[in-house]
Amino acid sequence: MLEKLKPDIMVNTLREVPLEILKKNKITGIILDLDNTLTDWNCVNISKDVCEWIVTLKNQGFKICIVSNNGVERIEASLKNLDVPYVPNALKPGKRAFLKAMKLLGTTSYSTAIIGDQLFTDILGGKRLRLTTILVKPRSKKEFIGTQLVRKIEKVILSRF
Ligand SMILES: [Mg+2]
Predict the structure, then answer these.
(1) Which of 22, 96, 124, 130 is most buried, with most CB under 10 Å away?
(2) What is the pLDDT of residues 41-53, one digit of tens each?
(3) How far is CA 82 from CA 74, 99, 152, in A?
(4) What is the pTM of this model?
(5) How far is the CA of 114 from the centre of ligand 1 (A)?
(6) Rounded to whole angstroms, what are the CA distances from 74 to 31, 34, 46, 50?
């Protein structure tokens, strides 16, 4: 049961995502979570270091798409001049938004990776479609009270991996 949630790769920061390994495994499309993956909690702005990392991904030939449970307004406010396609109101871990993103990316399950900070939305959703799943530590410790409870459960699960 827990295997269903085990990410393929776990990293502390976005910069640690092993892009060369992804390339070797023929990953060409990357789906990105927004909240607490690209932005800090309760913060609309994407920091300069993350913007630079996104540019690096593009320069290395990866196609990217944001899949967020947030609405259009919030996503647009975060992206500003960053030219990145997105799928809003994603209802992760549902499959629909991931499928939509893969259509935008022109990729298949085999050539797509998902990077996100939550096991029960990003990783579970990716697993359901057999994507390459990458769990990154949340950028902020501070979160919604509901998310804090989920984190406690995540912590127990992660300790078993
Ligand atoms: Mg998140």
Answers:
(1) 22
(2) 778 999 999 999 9
(3) 14, 22, 33
(4) 0.93
(5) 12
(6) 18, 10, 12, 17
Domain boundaries of the chain, sorted by first residue: 2-160
- 44, 69, 96, 103, 151 from 72: Cα distances, Å: 13, 10, 17, 19, 26
pLDDT tens digits for 121-160? 999 999 999 999 999 999 987 777 778 888 888 998 898 8
Cross-strand pairs, 35: 39
C-alpha–C-alpha distance, residues 75 and 66, integer Å: 9
The number of residues in the chain equals 161
Distance 25 CA to ligand 1 centre (A): 25
Q: How far is the CA of 127 from the centre of ligand 1 (A)?
A: 16
Distance (angstroms) between ligand 1 centre and the Cα of 120 equals 10
- The CA 78 to ligand 1 mean position distance, Å, reads 14
CATH number at 2-160: 3.40.50.1000
State the pLDDT confidence band at 81, using cuts at 50, 70 and 90.
confident
- The 8 Å CB, 24+ separation contacts for 21-26 are 22/62, 22/113, 22/132, 23/60, 25/132, 26/110, 26/111
